[in-house]
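Page 42, continued from yesterday. The earlier attempt failed because a stray header line got pasted into the input along with the sequence. Redoing it now with the clean sequence only.
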Amino acid sequence: MLFNSFIFFVFGSLFFLLFYFIKRSGSRELRWGFLVAASFFFYGWWDWRFLFLILTSGFIDYFGARGIYRYQKQKKLFLILSILGNVGSLAVFKYSGFIAENIDMVLGLAGVKSNLAGDIPEFMLLLPVGISFYTFQSMSYTIDVYRGQMKPTTNVLHFFAYLSLFPQLVAGPIVRATDLLPQLRELRPTSEIERWNGFKLIIIGFFKKVVLADNIAPLVNSGFANIHMTDNGPFWWIVIIGFAFQIYFDFSGYSDIARGLAKWMGLHFRLNFNHPYHSRSLREFWGRWHISLSTWFRDFVYIPLGGSRKGRWNAHVFMWITMVVSGLWHGAAWTFIIWGGLHAFYLSVERVTRWPQALKDLPAGGLVSILITNVLVLVGWVFFRADSVGDAAVILTHMFSWGGEGGFVINDEIRNGLVWLTVSMAIELITFFRIKPHLFVPVKFRRFVDVIYVLLMMLACIYLRGEGNVFIYFQF
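This time it went through. Structure tokens are written below.
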């Protein structure tokens, strides 16, 4: 069920109407049961068969965490079983085709005929929506119990209310059990200002998605659909900048909607995006982009491997492993692995040379740092968006060959995309320079201006919306 669909509007309206009365009942079990039932309905709307996967993943970690807490001598065994269960489901449903194709390729190079990819059952090639998100969220619960950072819940409804909560179920943010389980235990009443701020987040999220991201999408899609349409360098830089803004507004828009819905429930989700294109280094970029996933990999991969505790060069190795695994998490393709490896290379060079610090005290050094960071990020986005490594190589060749015989391609889709890309860049510039128009309005009129601001975004969502697209991160 898509947030930007009529059926979700109906679902959401009925959910909050019923939730208001159920919340007032005072029964935790009734509240948790309602959240689980509604979330399962939301998730099962795509394909009810996928519910068995989230149930399996959930029960593995629910009982695994209780085993860890009760049987301390065998707790490592329960943790291993939890990780194997979750990673195993990812391997089967997300990576089996990729693994089989690469085995076939290697055997073919050795002169051995093989067709493992063709022998994979069809059901294993259906990627369940959000599987990477809820498996990671479920695993983090078990790991936190293993580390002694929390006690496991003894109520299965309480656990599944945490795991399957529909606002963030299919595309994050990845919410930690240490944050959400206590909030679900005692849902506090919401204030008027919280409900208003939640509504604003929802409208801002829809504006980012359906007005900005969906209107930029045709520019990006037309470019990547025909990589040989032109070898004009500036054209391809604009296409990649378009994708950078498209994926940012698409994904941060989803996160804003999820955070707004959570506020209406009386819950708090942490910020997931913090203007990543304002970053002055790659390290800062990863502290601002998809924060819940970045911190997950830091806390559950990089630090357990050894982090920076085992020496400078080992820290580089651990960071490379973390970033490559992060790339593979995004998709079963070499393009994503290269994207992760490329960012690992960027971070290693940054650690060794300390170039952001070197530029810090120079005239306009901050702006130069931002420019360098964004150029590096844009090169990475080529691999993230391209259909193959070969396509990415062709696009990069176009981008860095400023000559070329092709002209700048203009059609209606590209022209419209350019307009909305310009609007998007203007919005980011306003936030970068911290321009706050409401400060020029007398205090007594600011609430009125706030209402007008939200109303204008609502009208834009209705009358200026682009062609509907599935949220980009649903594929992960």
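Notes: The chain has a mean pLDDT of 88.
Reminder to self: strip header lines before submitting.
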